Amino acid sequence: MILLFSSVLVIASLLLILLVLMHKGRGGGLSDMFGGGVSSSLGGSSVAERNLDRITIGIAVVWAVAVIALGLLLKVSN
User: Fold this and answer.
1) 45: which DSSP letter?
2) Residue 2 covered by a domain
3) Is the residue at 54 inside a domain?
4) What stretches of the chain show up as alpha helix (H) in DSSP?
5) Which domain holds residue 78?
6) Structural domains in the chain (count)
7) pLDDT tens-digit profile of 11-63?
């Protein structure tokens, strides 16, 4: 079980990094340094951005559950 949750944690961590980097910068930060401030923002967010937000939140929940489960398993096994 520990190996399973460790694998899930590694995969979820990598996916979470990738998904967060795919988000559009909302100004003022490092995104402006790399040209993110040049693009004009339209009024609302597109369907793709909303789906990216939902997927990111889902992977974050999987990551949090894996961390908690792994912590509990390691505590019980000692």
Assistant:
1) -
2) yes
3) yes
4) 2-22, 30-33, 47-77
5) 1-19+46-78
6) 1
7) 999 999 999 999 877 665 555 556 655 555 555 568 888 899 999 999 999 99
The predicted model scores a pTM of 0.74
Taking the CA atoms of residue 28, residue 33, residue 38 and residue 41 in that order, the dihedral angle to the nearest 10 degrees is -40
- Closest to 63 (Cα-Cα) out of 18, 4, 13, 20: 13
Burial 43-70 (b: 16+ CB within 10 A, else e): eeeeeeeeebeeebeebeebbeebeebb
The position carrying tokens 């997927």 is: 55
Residue 78 scores a pLDDT above 60? yes
Residue 38 lies in a domain: no
CB-CB neighbours of 37 under 10 Å: 14
